[in-house]
C-alpha cells in the first residue's frame, strides 16, 4: 500500500505538479494527496472515488509517515528538491538512527559492562560511570511517595541516567500492551488491492519494449510440439477417455466373510409348523367333536401335558358370543418366559448317517469258502448226541450219545461203520489228533475208555495197539489218582483197549496235539477236577493242588506247553513246564460252557450259557476282544477250523453260527470277525438244540451233534 | 407279439417237413409244436403215426414257451427262427429192482451181468434180469468199488476195491459158478475208493484215501510178487493165501494232497483222477507224469469221461455237475454246469452211446438223466430211491443202473431211439 503503483504514479505526477502548494504531503501519499485535491481534479473524480474507497482511514501523523517518506524520496528522484523543504532536520541523526551519541561504545550488548563500574565512554573518551546506588530502601520509598514522575521513570541502559518517559512513549507502551500496532495510523484491516487484477489494462505494466523472440516462432516449442505430434501419430498418446457418468455404488458386504453369512443362515431355526385348526377348534364345531360329560371328566383327570386335544371344543351361538381367551395373559407370560429362559447357544447335533456307524465288514460272499448248506444227516442214534469228534484224516467221525453207544461214521456217505455199546451216557469223545495213532478217548460215567476204532490204515491200527500193549508195569507201584485197567477180551473185541477208572464222573476228555497226553475233567466240586494222563506210560497226575472253582472245560495249547482251564467265569492259562499261572482271562460271561483255542495259539473263544461268545486275544488283553451275542439261547459248543479262518458256535436254539475269524500275523492288526451264516437243521428237544460242533480238518465243513439224535454235516 | 415265424429242420429223413417259414404262436410250447409237426407229417404221409418231438433252438432244448426261451437266450424274435426237431427221447422204463442186504456202494454192468459192491463187505454178481448169481465175500471191510476186467466165454475177471486197503482180482468161473481170488493187491494205506481198468484190459489203476494213485497189472499170474515187508506173520500169511497171491503196484502216482475219490482211464495211456483236494489231475500212465490239473473249488466225488464228446463230467460236494475239457492246458475251465440237484452229486456217468447224455446220482435221492443241450433242466428225473444214491452206471445196451443207501439197485431200460443213434 505504501508503495505507489507505477501505473498510477505517472498520471499523478501531473496532478501533484498542478497543485504544488496545496499540500506539503502531496505526492508522498497518493491517497492523501488525492483526497486533498479532489476538488481540483474534476475529470478524474470517478477514479479518485474508487481510490478513496480503497483507502479510507489514510490520514495520519507526519512522524508516522516518516519512514515511508524516506523510501519514497529515495525511489523518486524527481521529487527530491521538493522534499528538502519539508524535512529540515533530516540529518541530525544521520549517523545512526539508534546510536546514542553520549556513549561511544556503540551498539553492543550492555551486559558486557556488567562487571565494570562504568558503562561506556563519552565523546571525550572519559568513562561514564554507573550512577551510584546510594539510595537505601527508605529513600526509594520516600522518592516513590514524593515524586509524581516516579512511575514513568526508567533507567537508561546506556547512560544509567533516570529518564522519565514522555506521554507519547507511554501511549506507545500502552498500545503495545494492548496488542495493537505501535503505529497509530496503521490500519491492519485495510482492504487488499491486488496489484494484478483480472481486468485487462490498456497499458503495459512496464515500459520495456517487447523482445524479439516474442515475434519469431520458438524452435524449442516447435520441437516439443513435433514430438507430441509424433507421439500422437504413433499412438503413444491416447486421448483421455471420456469419463463415464455412471453412478457408483459400494457393496457394503463385499468384505464380509461368506462363511459367516452362511453360518448365520444355518443358525436360523424355523419355527415349528403348527397344524391348521380343524373342526374341533371351530367356535361352532360339529356335534361329534364336542366332548360328552364322561369324556370331559376323563379329560380333566388327565395330566395337562397328556390331554388330547389340549382344549375342550365348545360350541357358541355366534362368533360374537365367543368370550375372550381366559388364558391369554398366562400364555403370553409363559411365552415371554420361554424366550427369556431359552438357551441361546445352539447345540450342534452331530449329523451322522447310521450306516456309517456300522463297521465296514467284508461281504460274506467274499469270504468263501465256509459251510452254507446242510449236506448230510448222520442218523442212527436213538437219543441225544452229546459229543462228536472228527478223525485227523477227515474220513471218520465219532459220536457219543445218551443211548449208550459210541458210533463211528464215514464222513462222505453218512454211513455208520461201527457202533460200540458202552452202556451209559457218553459225555465226551475225542479222537487222537496225531494222525499216526488211531485212538479215541471216550468219557462215560466215571470211566474214560481208550478205544481203537480199527479204522484207517491197518498198520497204524496195529501200531497203536502195539504202543498201548508195550507198556510194562514199573517195579514200584505209584499212587495214582486213577486206575488204569486193561480191557478184557470181550471189551477188546469191541475195540476198547484201556479203561481209566476215575473216582468221580468224567465230563470231558481232550488230547494234547502230540497224541500222548490227554486231560480229563471230573465233576468233583472242591476236590481235584483236572487230571492229566499219559497213555503210553499209563500215568496220571493231578496238576493243581487247589482247584480254581468249578472247572467247565480244559484244552491243551496247540503250540506251546500251555494248559487252558475254563472255570465258571474265567479262563486260566497255565504254563506246564514252569508250573505257574501265566494269565487269567476274564470272560464277562456268567457261566462258560465251552472253549476252543485257535490253531495259531494266540486266540481263544469261549461259549457261555448266557448265549455269549467271547473272543480273547491273548496278546491283547485279559478281557474279551469281542463279545458276540448272536445266539438266542445258551451256547453249548464252540470250535475253530484248523486251516480256514472259521469258527462256529452251536446253541440250544438249534442253530449253528459260522463266523469268519481272520487272525493276522501282524500284531498291530486286530482279528477280523465277520458272522457268516446261521445253519439250522437240528430240532430242539428237551430245551436242547446243538450240543457239539466240530470242523472237518481239511474241508470247510462243519459237523454238529444235536439233541434230536442226529449229526449233521454242513458244507 | 402273438406270432413268430419259424422254420423247421430235422436230421431224420423220416420226419422231414417242407422247408418254409411257418407262423407259430409265440407262447407255444413243445407239445404245441409237436402237434404242428405231426399234422404236417400226417398231411404228407397218410401212414404217419403220432410221434413226440423235442425241439432245439441253437442247440438248446426248448423247455419253456417259445417266446420266453428266446428272450432268455437273447434270440431276436423279429427274424425267422430256425428250430431243429428230433424225436423225443422216451422216458427210461423201470425194469428191475434188485434188493441187497446193505448199501450199494458201486455198480458196473456188462451186457449180461451186473456187478455191485456192497457195504456188507461183499461184491455181488447179478444177471440183468435181476437174478442173484454170485456173492463174492473176501473183503474184511466195505467194498467201495467194483470193476469188470475181462469176459471170456467161460470165465470172467473182476476187481473189487475195499476199505480194507486192498483190491482183489477175482476169477469167476461161469460154468461152475465159482469165484476164486487170484490176487490181493496190497499197497494202499487207506481205503481204496475207486478202481478203473484200462482199455487193453491188462492194467488197472486204483485211487485211495491215502492220496495215492497206483497202477497194477490185471493179468493173472501164478507166482506171487515179492513182498518188501519181511515181518509177515503166520496169521497174515495164511490170510493172504486165502485171498490169493499178493500183488504189488506197477507204479505209484503221488501228487494229490487229499483223498482220491474217483479214477478212470480217459485214453489208453491217460489216467484221470478226481480228488478231495478240489482238483482233477490227468496223468500219463506210461511215465507216471502229471499232464495237467483241473482245479475246482469243491471236493470231487465222481468223474466220468465220454470218448464221444471228449468231455469230463464231474460231480462234487455241491449241487452242480460240471463239464470240463481235459485237453485245456490252463485248467479250471468249466464248460458247462448242469444244475438241478439239491444235494451233493455222488456219481456221474456219461452215456456210452450218446454224446450229449449223462446220468447223475445225488444225495437228494434222485437220479437224473441229462442232455447237455438243456443244462437248466434234466431230461428225466428218476425218483425211485428212498435214500441217498451212491452209484450209477449206464451200459451200452441202454441199461441205466443206480444203487444207493436204500439197499436197492434200480434198473431202467433206456432204448436208444432210431433217430438219435446217428445224431
From TrEMBL, chain B:
Entry GO CC: nucleoplasm; PeBoW complex; preribosome, large subunit precursor
Domain of life according to the entry: Eukaryota
SUPFAM superfamilies per UniProt: WD40 repeat-like (SSF50978)
Residues annotated as domain NLE: 6-70
Signal sequence, renumbered to the chain: none
Compartments, record wording: Nucleus, Nucleolus; Nucleus, Nucleoplasm
Repeat recorded as keyword: yes
Keyword Protease applies: no
WD repeat start-end pairs: 136-171, 185-217, 253-293, 302-325, 338-374
Chain segments carrying region Disordered: 223-242
InterPro entries linked: NLE, WD40/YVTN_repeat-like_dom_sf, WD40_PAC1, WD40_repeat_CS, WD40_repeat_dom_sf, WD40_rpt, WDR12/Ytm1
One MF annotation (Gene Ontology) recorded for this entry: ribonucleoprotein complex binding
GO biological process, one term: maturation of 5.8S rRNA from tricistronic rRNA transcript (SSU-rRNA, 5.8S rRNA, LSU-rRNA)
Listed Pfam families: NLE (PF08154), WD40 (PF00400)
This protein's UniProt keywords: Nucleus, Repeat, Ribosome biogenesis, rRNA processing, WD repeat
Quaternary structure and interacting proteins, as annotated: Component of the PeBoW complex, composed of BOP1, PES1 and WDR12. Within the PeBoW complex BOP1 interacts directly with PES1 and WDR12. The PeBoW complex also associates with the 66S pre-ribosome.
Family: Belongs to the WD repeat WDR12/YTM1 family.
Function: Component of the PeBoW complex, which is required for maturation of 28S and 5.8S ribosomal RNAs and formation of the 60S ribosome.
Matching HAMAP family: WDR12 (MF_03029)
Designated name of the protein: Ribosome biogenesis protein WDR12
Protein source organism: Lonchura striata (white-rumped munia)
